[in-house]
Recover the amino acids of this structure.
């Protein structure tokens, strides 16, 4: 199974952790294509998702030394076990690639002709999307099987942005959906859905999102193995005519979602997702 990773930056913790997780499962990527670190579109998207404070914290963690006061600087603490390396952590796709011997290319636009040429040269069976541009049809058609995405919400009930928050407000299970991407917004065929059963342990909305990201990375290796062995098959989504696409929340709605999270109670058996 030839796998390529698309990333919003070589410094993406999500992309680094995913590359390490699939390599650990026996599927070392054949390449990774990342946007330039200071890509304007990525910065604007992250500002919309995280706000100025969240983006500032993320940038600080990326460019400060690996350790301070004995603590590893990792933006998402649930990814730290995967990112650990010697006495520190992997901090860029280049470091991961050097360790596992696969190439990394930098681009301005993942849909550009030169990017498509690079991807075709790697001849992927699967492309895994961890962030970047809105993908166009020519790119979606490059891999033999398709482009995988881990959506931090239940599909088709919760599509679009701020999925964990909208899930809380809509009383939809908190979890991830692993699906093939198409030209729509989270409308592609579904491979697997997983509920995060210990979501109530989350201390905040950002903590919940971090848990879901790590949960999805862990589960995607299982899906890749299933595709490779022919035991998992994609199913088209239903109810696509319903208006299930959500957008970034207003602050007062975020506060309401946060209150909903604090009122959740763990199952009696304390089961983990």
């Amino acid at each position: 199974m030839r796998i390529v990773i698309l990333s919003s930056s070589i410094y993406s913790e999500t992309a680094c952790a995913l590359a390490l997780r699939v390599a650990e499962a026996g599927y070392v990527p054949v390449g990774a294509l990342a946007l330039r670190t200071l890509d304007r579109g990525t910065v604007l998207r992250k500002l919309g998702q995280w706000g100025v404070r969240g983006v500032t914290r993320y940038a600080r963690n990326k460019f400060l030394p690996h350790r301070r006061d004995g603590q590893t600087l990792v933006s998402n603490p649930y990814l730290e076990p995967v990112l650990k390396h010697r006495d520190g952590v992997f901090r860029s796709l280049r470091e991961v690639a050097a360790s596992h011997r696969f190439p990394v290319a930098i681009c301005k636009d993942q849909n550009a002709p030169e990017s498509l040429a690079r991807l075709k040269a790697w001849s992927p069976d699967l492309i895994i999307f961890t962030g970047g541009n809105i993908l166009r049809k020519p790119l979606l058609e490059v891999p033999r099987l398709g482009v995988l995405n881990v959506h931090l919400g239940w599909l088709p009930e919760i599509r679009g942005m701020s999925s964990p928050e909208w899930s809380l407000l809509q009383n939809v299970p908190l979890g991830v959906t692993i699906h093939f991407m198409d030209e729509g917004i989270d409308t592609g065929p579904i491979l697997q859905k997983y509920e995060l059963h210990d979501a109530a342990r989350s201390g905040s909305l950002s903590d919940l999102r971090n848990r879901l990201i790590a949960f999805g990375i862990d589960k995607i290796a299982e899906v890749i193995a299933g595709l490779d062995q022919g035991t998992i098959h994609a199913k088209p989504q239903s109810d696509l005519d319903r208006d299930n696409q959500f957008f970034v929340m207003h602050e007062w709605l975020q506060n309401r979602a946060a209150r909903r999270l604090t009122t959740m109670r763990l199952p009696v058996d304390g089961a983990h997702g």
About this structure: The chain has one domain: 3-262. Residues 268-273 have pLDDT under 50 and may be disordered. The chain is about 40% helix and 20% strand. Residues 3-262 form a domain with the Rossmann fold fold (CATH 3.40.50.170).
